[in-house]
Specification:
Blueprint (H helix, E strand, L loop, with lengths): L7 H9 L22 E11 L5 E3 L1 E2 L5 E2 L12 E6 L15 E7 L4 E4 L1 H5 L10 E4 L13 E5 L6 E6 L12 E4 L21 E2 L9 E3 L1
Antiparallel strand pairs: 1-2, 1-5, 1-13, 3-4, 5-6, 6-7, 6-9, 7-8, 9-10, 10-11, 10-13, 11-12
């Protein structure tokens, strides 16, 4: 299914979102919301859920690409991230009615951000975008265009919805600008992995997006 408008689930999601005062943040890591710098509001592992609602973690491979390893429980490279709100970054969706936080996915262990350089290299609406951890400044006040994420805190199963977000000028056809991971098979909802890339995953917007959502847990 390809979305040609704002999907209904996002409109429903707005109603489930916490007020700012109830965000699941760690007091020791969050700064005043008036801060102009990017600042951490959520920490944890980047995960997904299969069709049986079982959680799995993403990892990084030797090329620092975000990857899926069926043996992720034994991996020392499980992807631990900080979602950092960046107040100076413009909302790439450009819709004030869709509540959420704009920022970046910072990876402390690699001193980098989860981005998709392929997005900057392509003008095709049908391009494949793959996530990789690239160097980024830990104290920056802005975010590179290919490193923007949108975070929707929710009461649903205590899950925190995370989407890679892009402005509308170079979207996959029919996308509203919110990307999850590309699935291998809708029957299992496990990530598709790029052949020859050591488990590297791809972003996708041409699936039922709630079934391929990334979370921080």
């Amino acid at each position: 299914m390809i979305f040609t408008r704002i999907p209904t689930f996002l409109l429903l999601l707005v109603a489930a979102i916490h007020p700012v005062s109830a965000l699941p943040v760690e007091d020791s890591s969050i700064k005043e919301r008036s801060s102009s710098n990017c600042h951490t509001i959520l920490k944890g592992h980047l995960v997904g859920f299969d069709s049986h609602n079982k959680q799995f973690s993403f990892v990084t491979n030797s090329a620092n690409e975000v990857a899926y390893d069926p043996n992720w429980k034994k991996s020392k490279d499980q992807l631990y991230v900080n979602f950092q709100e960046c107040p100076k970054s413009k909302d790439p969706i450009g819709d004030e009615d869709i509540i959420g936080f704009v920022g970046r996915m910072y990876v402390p262990a690699l001193n980098g951000c989860v981005s998709s350089p392929a997005y900057l290299q392509s003008t095709s609406a049908n391009a494949d975008y793959y996530p990789i951890v690239t160097p980024c400044d830990a104290t920056t006040s802005s975010v590179a265009e290919d490193s923007l994420w949108k975070y929707f805190p929710s009461d649903e199963d205590n899950r925190n919805f995370m989407f890679w977000a892009t402005p509308p000028n170079r979207l996959q056809k029919g996308c509203v600008g919110l990307y999850g991971y590309k699935t291998h098979d809708k029957s299992d909802q496990l990530p598709f992995t790029r052949p020859g890339h050591n488990g590297a995953i791809e972003f996708s917007c041409d699936t039922e997006i709630l079934e391929s959502t990334l979370f921080i847990q």
